[in-house]
Amino acid sequence: MRLEPLAEEHLPLLDALIADPESLRFTRIPEPPPPGFPRRWLDSYGAGRQDGTREAFAAFDEDDTFVGLALAPAIERGAREAELGYIVTPAARGRGMATAMLRALTDWAFEQGILRATLIINVENTASARVAERAGYVREGVLRSIFFKDDRRTNATLWSRLPSDP
Q1: Distance separating alpha carbons of residues 8 and 58, to the nearest angstrom
Q2: N or C: which end of the chain has fewer CB within 10 A?
Q3: How far is CA 19 from the centre of its chain?
């Protein structure tokens, strides 16, 4: 599995992710995605790359098949903290790709000087919680009513990993 910075050539690959009901259910992607959302998403990560506040990577398996996105939607350089996340294509689920993506993304974050990496996972997303555990993250607790989407508020679990964690 390899990560490469999300770029213009990856734009057509985003359509499959935003059309996937599970991706929409468990991410902050608006539901339904507004027209032009993939372009705005790509541009927002490009701007974040420039100012150091966000980063995104396209993930590919050993056959160079797109398997998802590895994301740092919020980077606080001064605090040396980053929120990380991942979205896996339906075809890649159940193959260990999410764990590999998260491990690679976490390694990247620590190489950037991040001292605390966090994940915010919908409480109903048990598969993602298993990925976090396999990647060495520690569950810290529940963030109640943290996100508002589709006219409802949702709870999420907070996970963290430090460079000193095993």
Answers
A1: 11
A2: C
A3: 17
Tell me how crowded residue 117 is: count the other CB atoms within 10 A of its CB.
Answer: 26
Distance CA 160, CA 83 (A): 9
What residue type is 130 in one-letter code?
A: R
Q: Which CATH architecture has domain 2-161?
A: 3-Layer(aba) Sandwich (3.40)
For the stretch 138-155, pLDDT in tens is 999 999 999 888 788 999
Biggest alpha carbon–alpha carbon distance for the chain:
43
The DSSP code sequence of 111-140 is: HTT-SEEEEEEETT-HHHHHHHHHTT-EEE
Q: Among all chains, which residue has been given the structure tokens 């935003």?
A: 18
- Prediction pTM value: 0.95
